[in-house]
Amino acid sequence: MPQEVNRFMNDQLSQRIEHSRRGFSKSQRAIARYLQDHPEEVAFMTASRLGATVGVSESTVVRFATEIGYSGYPAMQQAVQEMIRNKLTSFQRLEMTSRNIPPERLLDAVMEQDIDILRRTKESLGRDDFYSAVEALVGAKRVFVLGAGSSLALATFLAHYFRLIFDTVQLVEATSESAIFQQMVRAGEGDAIIAISFPRYSKKAAKALKYAHDKGMTAIAVTDSPLSPLAAGASHVLLARSDMVSFVDSLVGPLSLLNALIVTVAIRKRTEVVDTLRQIESIWDEYGVYEKVEEREV
């Protein structure tokens, strides 16, 4: 097991185990030992697989999770995943998935995890935080959008639709810190920035938010935790789940959050947006931008 994962065991999960250890049965001690020695394996194991590996029943594994204070095995496994996600490299994640999920289960496993991520995003998102960020955006003169790594896809999506809502939207190219600051040098009070990043967190996104905050901009972070480095420099923090699916970071949670953000801001600026959309539709028709599809008789 990577040495850094061992060091990372000193967190809330380990504290829960140590707090309950005196009351453990022999089987539960075996589960705790395996979990602490092999967290990168448990992160991808089903309860039945973990039980078979340790030599106990699936129900014993589930009881162990509740014994240390989780609602069930999935909640404990999520804690293990969050514990290691910043520590495992991409190829280590892929190896763990290959070892612990049968090929014929991959489609179901990935989709089921995405569904669970959406549910937990909905449950954990602060409504007041969301609508406060919306109000701050509605009055913005210019909007800057930044996403590094896989979050660039989210930032590009957001910028595409925000250009239908705001007069000026800039997708910040996060090629380097100097390039970010150069693109934002004329920004200031009355402007807003949305920076998106999930583990492993982008240092550039965190520094861009701090820079924006120091300049008096509305700084909105879209990330997964109040402890995210982006949160420190943000005036508004929108939380979405982004758990790892093998070496891929699932983005269904933050994408759904951004969908809601786009729709809500557009409704708040309905008069301007409707006028813009009408003009765009007219231009598209005039210049034949899209192919018209005739209805076919059935």
Short description:
The protein has 298 residues and is an alpha/beta fold.
Question: What this model shows, in words?
Answer:
With 298 residues, this protein is an alpha/beta fold. Helices cover 56% and strands 10% of the residues. The protein is built from 15 helices and 7 strands. Strand 3 (192-196), helix 13 (203-214) and strand 4 form a beta-alpha-beta unit. The protein is elongated and about 70 Å long. Residues 1-10 have low confidence and may be disordered.
Question: What tags apply to this protein structure?
Answer:
298 residues; alpha/beta; 5-stranded parallel beta sheet; 10% strand
Total number of beta strands: 7
Radius of gyration: 23 Å
Global outline: elongated
User: By helix and strand content, what is the structural category?
Assistant: alpha/beta
Portion of residues in helices?
55-70%
First-residue to last-residue Cα separation: 60 Å
Provide the residue-averaged pLDDT: 87
Q: Tell me the strand percentage band.
A: 5-15%
Question: What's the assembly state of these chains?
Answer: single chain
Across the major sheet, the strand order is 2-1-3-4-5
Determine the number of helices (DSSP H or I, runs of at least 4 residues). Answer: 15
